[in-house]
């Protein structure tokens, strides 16, 4: 049996030029609480490499985590929750002194002006760069941040290298229409 396709076929209609609205920039500051310890963690290891001692380390090389981390207005445990960061990250460095994760997360806002909107990040996150802020890329968004791009500067507010628990300040610069 021989199947042929008509080379004149058109699987979509027309393409029209887009005249974008004026681009906006929104700057947001919030805190992400990534808690691996205790009875109610917000992130859990879902896989680890057997060859790297993954089960013996809170953040062992090759470990894959699922996260449902609260986003809050301030760094304290009692701070007002404004959303959640859901996604995954993998420990991507063998040397704990150069601890780096690669992460995908949807940072969703569940209250206030941006309720129902989110920003999506997919980037390398060099956690061990304690001397200052590190930067991850914004690759998209939903709601008011549809088609977003930009970056997030992350500063570690608190980290426990024994448990892996961390509170991180996120300063996001979001370009959107």
UniProtKB/TrEMBL annotation:
Keyword tRNA processing annotated: no
Biological process annotations from GO: phenylpropanoid biosynthetic process
Cellular component annotations (GO), alphabetically ordered: apoplast
Keywords (A to Z) from UniProt: Apoplast, Secreted
InterPro entries reported for this sequence: Allene_oxi_cyc_Dirigent, Dirigent
Pfam families: Dirigent
Role according to the record: Dirigent proteins impart stereoselectivity on the phenoxy radical-coupling reaction, yielding optically active lignans from two molecules of coniferyl alcohol in the biosynthesis of lignans, flavonolignans, and alkaloids and thus plays a central role in plant secondary metabolism.
Family the UniProt entry places it in: Belongs to the plant dirigent protein family.
Name of the protein in question: Dirigent protein
Organism from which the protein derives: Brassica campestris (Field mustard)
